[in-house]
Design goal:
It comes from Trapa incisa. The chain has 85 residues and is mostly helical. It contains two helices and no strands. The longest helix has 51 residues. The chain is rod-shaped and about 85 Å long. The termini are far apart.
């Protein structure tokens, strides 16, 4: 009996539907609490993607600014060399 209660508590804690030894009662191994946990992880993933998108956007802006500064520097150098003669 002690082993069965251990398996139940493990299944409740780590329920992801992939335990081959877990016998469900015909609901496909899904429980009502599993969907709220999945939505919580999905929400965190969406938040993480938003942060990643923001960081990538800032990175692209920095690259564009650096490129513009570099091109302007090259143009200035070219003008200085062509104005000498």
């Amino acid at each position: 009996m002690g082993n069965n209660s251990y398996e139940s508590s493990w299944a409740d804690q780590w329920d992801n539907g992939s335990d081959p030894h877990h016998h469900s009662s015909g609901d496909g191994g899904k429980r009502g609490g599993g969907s709220s946990a999945a939505s919580k992880y999905k929400q965190k993933a969406v938040e993480g993607l938003g942060k990643t998108k923001t960081a990538a956007s800032h990175g692209v802006k920095k690259v564009k600014e650096g490129t513009a500064i570099g091109i302007q520097w090259i143009k200035t150098k070219y003008r200085k060399t062509t104005q000498k003669h």
